[in-house]
Write a structure and sequence with these properties.
Elements: E1 5-7, H1 9-26, H2 29-48, H3 53-86, E2 93-114, E3 117-129, E4 134-136, H4 155-161, E5 167-173, E6 176-184, E7 188-190
Parallel strand pairs: 1-7
Antiparallel strand pairs: 2-3, 2-5, 3-4, 5-6
Amino acid sequence: MNTKQTLTLEYIRNDLRYIARINRSWASPILETLGGIFGILTVFWFILFPTLPLPGIALGAFAIFFIVRYIKDARPCYADAKALRRALTCADISIDVEAFSHTARETVIEPHSFTGHGNLTKYIPVVYFLSGASWRIPYVSGRLYKWSKTHSLSLEGLENISLEGDEFYYVSLQGHPNVSFIYPCKFFVLAKELEGSAT
């Protein structure tokens, strides 16, 4: 019989910090790149062709459009990261116990670059719970819960050990539901400092 790993506030902080970094990377790098390219082209146009301002103005308009779109996409992610830096106590996180339903691969519109080619959509794995809640599984280089010497899991491992009705701790940053992580109750138990936080 496996001994459960104690889930401490520090372990949760590490996972939530990781999610905040991942969320920030989801703000489209293509928009940022296009804004930079059009910005550079605008500068070069006005240097090389100062007597033909209209194409330069058009290039500048494209640069501003892409930069504004990028800022709009990235702002919530930076707000999440800022809130997480201030989160130091148990009161800053919410812990719910959710019953597992299933996992699925969803298509989302999220411009990104893959092997040098731009793509507008990507497939992402999502965990669904019987309450209707869901959790987007982050891209991880290998495993979830890497801080655990005994209970780290690959995505496939998480899917394989999860049966309908299994309970998970669903942990999120108060006021920032996109910064969240899940932990299977069959592998983890809350530290004493967190026991009163679970609902």
